[in-house]
Amino acid sequence: MEKQHVLELFKLKGKNPQIECNFRMSDNEFPKTLDPERIRYLKSLNPELESSLGPKCDLNLPYICDNCLHRVLHGKFSSWTSGNELIDSFIQETQLFSPYERYPEWVPHNSLSQIKKIGEGGFGTVFSAMWSWGIKSSLEEEDKYDKTRKNVYHYRTGPCTVALKKLKGEMEFTQTFLLEVQAQFDFCHLYGITQDPSTLEYMFIMRFAPQGDLRRYLLRNFDNLTLPNKLGIAQTICAELEKIHAKGWVHGDLHSGNILLLNEENAFISDFGMCRPTDTVEAKDKVYGVISYIAPEIIRGNPYSQAGDIYSLGILLWELACGIIAFADRSHDVNLILDICDGLRPQTCHYSPLVYNDIIKVCWDPDPSKRPSASEILISIERLCKFRRSRDDFGYPNSEYLIEISGDFFKDYQSGFFDPDYDLIKYSDSEIHQQLKIAHKACRIYIKMKWKPNKPIHSEAVYTSRSFSYKSLQDEIDILLVKSNRSSIVG
């Protein structure tokens, strides 16, 4: 994307002086809900901007409509640069078309402090940092003269902790880099981009997850997680994946190290280094990811797909239920790859609801066409999540409510989300209710006992993403097959 293209986009949007101001202020006061100290703070945060605004926007206060804001931002394009035309063009285009809270910024590195390394993945290194600017936000208040209109005011939160992702050197200035930037903007909270002055490497500024990744969170907190907690995390993961798939993209590298936790029931997907629109994904000479999460058809050389993401989601849901990592007791080598392609899956979690286990199993179907969509899984998990609001004052399930919920859940399966011959159909309403009740009690017992799964991890089990050559894999598999007299189910 060239800078001239961005300027043309702005002309199309309406740089005409007659552009409509879509903001209406009844007076020049801050909303009455703000205390005087907050008002003084918000006033102090306003940048020194120059632009002719619409007659109802006031730059001296944080009241400005998106149309006028885009004019202001356009007027400041010449006052900053990232040093890279591709990055400049991306930021400028998103600033011209995005609302206040959504557009990313070019952020001077000196506004970031207390930078600490917190993790490293296949595509880059992640740090935490204190951002002095703070995150953009807005609030609405009903117009006291026109009840059909709302006044919107913009502000920043003040200094806050953010995450920084520094991309590996080979990722920069490539199509891969641009795809990850776009994916971060579309599916995650991309606050801005900055540059490390010592290394000249670019860094994303993103939402910080105080609870870390799902894998480490389960190791620390599994003995405190209730069934509602687990279902809440499952729901948010499914919702995030559904959003990615609904826009026609594939994540391509789902595993518990890429799921970040805000709190005990809210998670989001991160690391979009492999994320692609489905119509641009092609079969390659390498497979990338964590072996235990990679769908067998991808190991065989098929391109990454949304069905492949669903397989990975099934492993994630299993890990969330059991509290342990899939295939932790064995080496992640060609033997494991061969066994996965031959149908090996993790053992069923016996203290999870059978309904939940069945959702997991259908995600693992060896035939990608028989796996459910992300939206189908989300609807099913949401049904189970109603269980969280069905307990009485003593923490015990409300049986009548559960029967009602399980009945709705059962009808959803009957309506065709899955194959009508699928095993779940054999469950009656009361059986599903009983499954939820037993699983809830099991979690309560484990919490009281402070019990955690204690399964040692094999020294050659690898849970960070890595790449494998199809040719070298096939050569190793052929040697193994000759030794074991097995037929190939990989190539």
UniProtKB/TrEMBL annotation:
Q: Does the keyword Membrane apply?
A: no
Q: Name one GO cellular component term.
A: cytoplasm
Name the PROSITE patterns for this protein.
PROTEIN_KINASE_DOM
Task: Classify the source by domain of life.
Answer: Eukaryota
InterPro entries this protein is in? Kinase-like_dom_sf (IPR011009), Prot_kinase_dom (IPR000719), Ser-Thr/Tyr_kinase_cat_dom (IPR001245), Ser_Thr_protein_kinase (IPR050167)
Q: Name one GO molecular function term.
A: protein kinase activity
Q: Which UniProt keywords apply?
A: Kinase, Transferase
**Domain Protein kinase, which positions?**
112-384
A GO BP annotation: signal transduction
Q: Name one Pfam family in it.
A: PK_Tyr_Ser-Thr
In terms of PANTHER family, this protein maps to: AT08303P, SERINE-THREONINE PROTEIN KINASE
What is the official name of this protein in its record?
Polo kinase CDC5
Species name for this entry? Rhizophagus irregularis (strain DAOM 197198w) (Glomus intraradices)
